[in-house]
Write a structure and sequence with these properties.
Elements: H1 2-10, H2 16-39, H3 46-68, H4 90-109, H5 113-138
């Protein structure tokens, strides 16, 4: 399984702070995926290897550019973060959670692990919020519209 060693070595293309935060997760996912392919008696398909390695190069480029280019300090928070636009129903919160999951999957597919982590945190926050609302509703503290 030399491809796994090559994959791990290619993760060094990322900046150090990114590697420290995400590379073990990235390697673990790749190792699991490659292990599944080898367990099925197949060698890793060339398409998977090319896609993963291309993704690493692309992701490393993006991470280095983000470090080099100045950050836009005037970005505003999204409307969903504003307390005045808080969702009123569990169904609306569930839609936001589904959107966060879809965004997380898309970010992972694009090797954008920083945003994937952010979407994951949003999904967990929304899941907890739904759970808390459901508990309050079942206890009779609130009425769900």
């Amino acid at each position: 399984m030399r491809i796994i060693h090559f994959y791990r070595a290619s993760l060094w293309l990322y900046p150090k702070d990114f590697r420290e935060q995400f590379c073990e997760e990235m390697f673990s996912v790749f190792e699991q995926r490659a292990g599944e392919l080898f367990a099925n008696g197949r060698s890793a398909p060339i398409a998977l290897v090319v896609a993963e390695l291309t993704g690493i190069v692309r992701g490393a480029y993006i991470m280095w550019m983000a470090k080099i280019l100045p950050k836009n300090r005037n970005t505003s928070r999204s409307d969903t973060d504003s307390p005045t636009n808080a969702p009123l129903t569990i169904a609306e919160i569930a839609k936001q959670r589904d959107a966060a999951i879809q965004s997380m999957v898309a970010a992972i597919a694009a090797h954008d692990f920083i945003n994937a982590r952010r979407y994951s945190d949003d999904e967990i926050r929304l899941k907890t919020f739904i759970h808390d609302l459901q508990n309050k509703a079942s206890a009779g503290h609130i009425t769900i519209a």
